[in-house]
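Researcher: Last one for today. Full complex below.
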Amino acid sequence: METSAIQGLHMVGVYHSYGSTPVLNNISLTVPAGELVCLLGPSGCGKTTLLRVAAGLERLQAGSVTIDETVVAEANLQLPPEDRRIGFMFQDYALFPHLSVLENVMFGLFRRDKAAAHTRAMDVLGQVGMARFADQHPHMLSGGQQQRVALARALAPEPRLVLLDEPFSGLDTDMRGRIREETLSVLKQTNVATLMVTHDPEEAMFMADRIKVLGENGRILQAGRPADIYYRPASEYVARLFGPMNMIDAVVTQGKLASSFGIMAAKRAAEGQVVRVLIRPEGLILSNGAGAEGGTPVDVLSAHLLGDSSMVRIQVREGANRGEEFQVRIAGAFDLTEKGQIWAHVDPRHVFQYPQD
Amino acid sequence: MIMAGLVTMPILAVLYLAFTPVDDLWPHLVSTVLPGYITTTLILMLGVGTGTLLIGVSTAWLVTMCRFPGRRIFEWGMLLPMAMPAYIIAYVYTDILEFAGPVQGMLRELFGWSSKREYWFPEIRSVGGAIAMMTLVLYPYVYLLARAAFLEQSVGVFEASRSLGRGPWRSFFTVALPLARPGIVIGLSLVLMETLNDFGTVDFFAVNTFSLGIFDVWMNMNNISGAAQLASVMLLFVVLLISAERYARRKQRFYSTSGKYQALPGFQLTGGLGLLATAGCLTPVLLGFVLPTLVLLRYAQLHFDPELALEILEHALNSVRLSVLAGTIAVLIAIVMAYSARINGGRLLLAASRVAAMGYAIPGAVLAVGVLIVLGNLDNGIDTLARRNFGLSTGLIFSGTIAAVTFGYIVRFLALSLGTVEASLAKVTPNMDGASRSLGRGALATMRHVHLPLIRGSVLTAVILVFVDCMKELPMTVILQPFNFQTLATFVHQYASDEQLGEAALAALSIVGVGVVPVILLSLTIAKSRPGHRHGN
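Model: Here's the assembly. Have a good evening.
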């Protein structure tokens, strides 16, 4: 196959099941060198299993795994993990508690002579900003520092492929953003192929060059750049990954769908078919007074300030969805109350149609 | 795998015999000794069970939940009698309580009696005496597990019961005790296994239990298949005990009430009540450890004789050599078995380790019979082979050698080392293996650089545990020991049987001293694992 000639990770038709339940079903993916591919899916959907199969920590049951043009696993071949030249960063970091930070990073450098290994380890530690902590032991470090050491340890032997298993899930929210940025920059400098799994869509959007959404059935539901996934979710499931959705079920009449928010053209649906219309809370825009024509008059039921945004619950007053409630996310605090009639209209970029069977 | 097979062979041999009855002896056994063995063994188990339950549970509750003078010392002090082998305490008490002993002597002097007929005094060398002796040294098992169970209970549950209007006593019987039941059952089954295993005490007191029966049939009637048949009946008891223990362990999981720990309530017991609690905890420790130790110390001093001391030193060296050898090998096997089970997860290996773990439950006398059968067959096999091929007879190579004793020790105590090693290996997350492997180290290098350093402490503990149990071991050693070879335990047994406890006191003291080591280890572990005192992970 032509694609296998590229540098990086190449998995074809990978299948894996525990007992009779398949957790990975015909997964094929390519991670070219220098790119970061993110596997996004709910917990327990087999994401981690895919990483472990790539690493050789789990036996490949069907399909093939190729790293840098070398087949490392297929039907009658299972290269053990130690011979795959990979770097694996575990969710719990799995730092060796009996070794110092430096010794942890040097652990994979045993093939080099002592001085070279030391230099390399200190280099990588410097890259992640942990050189000062070289002599400390893992239990003396904070979660963020441990994460950086784990990254340095995985990168030190210059692997051909880096695998990251939920790399930021153990960190506090305020820490997560910063560490995420640092990790991304280190990986980009290294120019290594990286496969990462996460259940956090925001994280995937931030880190990934390309995202693969893995469903509960162990199949890839959609693959694409972050913007593709967010603005063109291929299924209701993918659309709902990014948070709660407003939902309208409408019937296609003369090629159109009627809703309180206006008439829209039905896409990919037959006459008379039910179409589920999903609208993101940020896809509803509220305004009041003059210049709000074209919108739908609504009543505000409640408003909660969440910090940099507010969640507003509204009830539609007329049209096909009269009396139904919707969620609206607006920037900042909600301050339109007591100022006359409030109108809502939709931002078509946040509206998605899914014909129902 | 081969190792696993080897160590499980004696157990399997006995099991095999249990299910293939050789019918020549049965009628004879059934009509003569068997009913007696069964009744006596049952009475003994019932008595020791009741006694250890009463002492173990009540002291565990006092020490865990109440505050009274000396509580902190009792926390670990209650464990001390564990260091005292039942046979040693039996020798000591017989010595002081028998007709010619100091207690009766004093009574006679005090009241002016001159003959045995003039007063009543309990006969120590009886079933009752055996029950008392074993209860005194075995209750720590119940104490240990009951205390752990009480500690793990959420205090909230107990307090909820009290807030619902039940007093402390009723709350104890309706909430705390039922919740701790699985732990207590485990402790109790350990006690009963030890009771079954005991040989020294029942031999000395002439209480006809199975252990003694097996020994008798083997040594005095020289009838190995008879011994094996008795052993098979005894195994029935063992199987019952093991199932009780397994059942309790399964239940234990559902009985854990909360992961959250609160400070224990610490009912303040003041005045008379406090003193009563102190006395209640002090009595078993005094009787089970302090008093016998003092008596032994005194005897050792009175009967000190450099020549005898030299002889004892020689036996001690024998004991130490054997025990170190067995301890080291048992732990090495345990490491290999546990680690290969970890990386292969093979079912056969798992089964082998389960069978191997049974060694601890099977009484020494039974196992010794198994070892004899296995080694006997091995010797015969080699002998036949050698005769056929080289025309010479090798005779018995393994039977009746130190190798046989060591082999027996390993089979019996492998469960101890395997359990310790497995438990600490389980604490190393599989991601550690993954991390090391993905960094380019193979399975063996991973074990050397990651697992061994991480479990080093437990490996040492395992060696010590096996070592100490080997030092105390009596029934297997008596059956398997080579001619003209003695360990401390058999030496003490022999002298005490000849009513020469004084001469054996020094040796007995050494055994007790060695036995204190695991007690210290245990109390350290308890102190460390106590919620709120946890060190950083």
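The mean pLDDT of chain A is 89. The first strand of chain A starts at residue 8 and ends at 18.
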